[in-house]
Amino acid sequence: MQAYTSSAIVNSSISPGVDLDEVYATERVRVLVVDDDSDLVVLIKHILRSSGFDVLSANNGVEALRRAREVQPDLVLLDLMMPEMDGWVTLQNLRQFSNAPVIVLSALSSKDEIVRCLYEGVDDYMTKPFYKGEVVARINAVLRRAKQPRETTRFTFPKVGLVIDIKTQEVIFSNHSIQLTAKEFALLALLAKNAPGVVSYPVIAQTVWGEDVPNVRQRTKYLIFLLRRKFEEIDPNFALIQSMDRMGYKLKTE
């Protein structure tokens, strides 16, 4: 067996490693701060750490998405004007795999920008400069609202690249927007709400068509055919909607 001297394994210039099991086991709220102003990031991190939050940061959208995937923050503070990838694009990409609440912190203060943010699904909007106590108060308020039970209006299935927004009836598959008719969307939304479970023929009949009569099943099969064709135009090798023999249909979410 090879012998190791203390000098071979100890180097005073190297800081001790971090036990990541302990880091990720913490119950403290993790906040991701995304801003290209390094001085501001340092200030915000100090404010949040002093208030009991765990904090990490990113200086641009590309880095923010990477860190969000790694750490899965409980909340994101997001600037809009950044190099490489601005806040709008960052938000759109973030929503492909995360439902973490987002508070925009921006120098832009026009009503149009605020309204656009709210339409894009931002949970709150703050303008720079800000009062330090306000940041903590707004984060706590957003987190309280996020914990309250509410009907889900946006379904995200990151493993298959599918996003369905009930309010806007927007459907994105593999980064492509898909236009659906009202009936097509109603059926797809029903499958999404019950995923990965199976939705039976009678439930589909009552929910989509409002009646369960003999010819409804044939109408449903044709609607499924139309839906599948639209998704197959984007990815012909992936069957998103699966038929369950004599039972109904379900979404493939893995």
Strand content: 15-25%
- Spatial extent as radius of gyration: 23 Å
Mean pLDDT: 85
CATH second-level architecture of the largest domain: 3-Layer(aba) Sandwich
Query: How many β-strand runs?
Result: 12
Separation, N- and C-terminal Cα atoms: 47 Å
Just give the CATH class of the largest domain. Answer: Alpha Beta
Q: Unreliable segments (pLDDT under 50, ≥5 consecutive)?
A: 1-9
Order of helices and strands: HHEHEHEHEHEHEEEEHEHHEE
Mass-distribution shape:
elongated
* Helical content (DSSP H or I, runs of 4+): 40-55%
CATH superfamily of the largest domain: Response regulator
Largest beta sheet: strand ordering: 2-1-3-4-5
Biggest beta sheet summary:
5 strands, parallel
Tally of structural domains: 2
| Number of helices, counting only DSSP H or I runs of 4 residues or more | 10
Category by helix and strand content: alpha/beta
Protein name: Response regulators consisting of a CheY-like receiver domain and a winged-helix DNA-binding domain
Keywords: DNA-binding, Phosphoprotein, Transcription, Transcription regulation, Two-component regulatory system
Modified residues (4-aspartylphosphate): 79
GO molecular function: phosphorelay response regulator activity; transcription cis-regulatory region binding
